[in-house]
Amino acid sequence: MTTWKQSDLVAVRAAIASGVRSVTFADGRKTEYHSLDQLLAAERVIDAALQMQDQAVSGVVRRRTPYYRSGL
Known about the structure:
This protein has about 70 residues and is mainly alpha-helical. The chain has helices at about 5-20, 35-60; strands at about 20-25, 30. The chain has a two-stranded antiparallel sheet with strand order 1-2.
């Protein structure tokens, strides 16, 4: 499992903005994406992972309880 850093997200967003398909991450890995769709997917994955890391550090846990109506 990869631990993402904020700089990784910044690098991916910079690549999207400039149209470049290769990104060098904070740990030295260099990845070349085949399309803009793959870059956008990588951005979503990294952003979600960073949000989960922030929630784990802050201790905020959100739970949802479903509510059902019987319709009667």
